[in-house]
Amino acid sequence: MNAKQLVGEKAVDYIKDGMVVGLGTGSTVYWTIQKLGQLVKEGLSIKGIPTSVRTEELAKELGIPLTDFASVDRIDVTIDGADEIDSELNLIKGGGGALLREKIVAAASAQLIIVADESKLVKQLGQFPLPVEVIPFGWENTMKKIAEFGCQPRLRLVDDKPDITDNGNYILDCKFDKITKPEQLNKELNTIPGVVENGLFPNIANMFLIGKKDGKVNVITNMR
Ligand SMILES: O=C[C@H](O)[C@H](O)[C@H](O)COP(=O)(O)O
């Protein structure tokens, strides 16, 4: 079993009957959703809130009941992946373009559990280009403003056309040398007109399940 599958499946240990569960996006949490589908067939009663159209489709295929913000007043736990995790437990997310809905769901969750293989652990964020979701109108200008923060932004393309997010926006992948103050950068980027959200998740996850090559899972609890 690979490390992503290992931690993805392990995450269901934290999901109990009756919970409202935020369903993250990506190739690690894919395994969580698969396992949840199996448990639901066996009688587990949960309601999911998906963070992307992709995840919504997968959950529906597997028969996981879904709900929405209009119908519930809390999310008990969200399971999601990450592109980078630094030693202070800050994250970069959005490699799969789902960062905006992921951040909304994470902010509404009592618990955020991150599942990742050990390749995602870094000393300092910034190797992975930071995804920033921007409104298509005037994106070229928004990109210039973002570049003033000392990065090289690039419009994310699919088949030579802008990649469109589930929310109808574009993604700029912004390569920084290193991100020294993630919390500050998170706030400042979001003040630029045209920026909808960025992929920095500064120290908001409660727990990390890290899959290692030797088949073990490292559980890190955030004591903040
Ligand atoms: O937009 C995508 C999400 O933030 C993912 O959770 C992140 O990219 C990690 O994905 P994966 O588990 O496929 O590496």
Automatic annotation (TrEMBL):
Binding residues annotated for substrate, in chain numbering: 25-28, 80-83, 93-96, 120
Pfam families, sorted: Rib_5-P_isom_A
GO MF terms, alphabetically ordered: ribose-5-phosphate isomerase activity
One GO CC term on file: cytosol
EC code(s) of this entry: 5.3.1.6
Catalysed reaction, written as an equation: aldehydo-D-ribose 5-phosphate = D-ribulose 5-phosphate
Catalytic residues in the record: 102
GO biological process: D-ribose metabolic process; pentose-phosphate shunt, non-oxidative branch
Catalytic EC class: isomerase
Recorded metabolic or biological pathway in which this protein acts: Carbohydrate degradation; pentose phosphate pathway; D-ribose 5-phosphate from D-ribulose 5-phosphate (non-oxidative stage): step 1/1
Keyword field: Isomerase
UniProt keyword Isomerase, yes or no: yes
Keyword Transmembrane helix found: no
Family listed: Belongs to the ribose 5-phosphate isomerase family.
Entries under HAMAP family matching the protein: Rib_5P_isom_A
Quaternary context: Homodimer.
Function: Catalyzes the reversible conversion of ribose-5-phosphate to ribulose 5-phosphate.
NCBIfam families linked: PRK00702.1, rpiA
Listed name of the protein: Ribose-5-phosphate isomerase A
Organism the protein comes from: Tepidibacillus fermentans
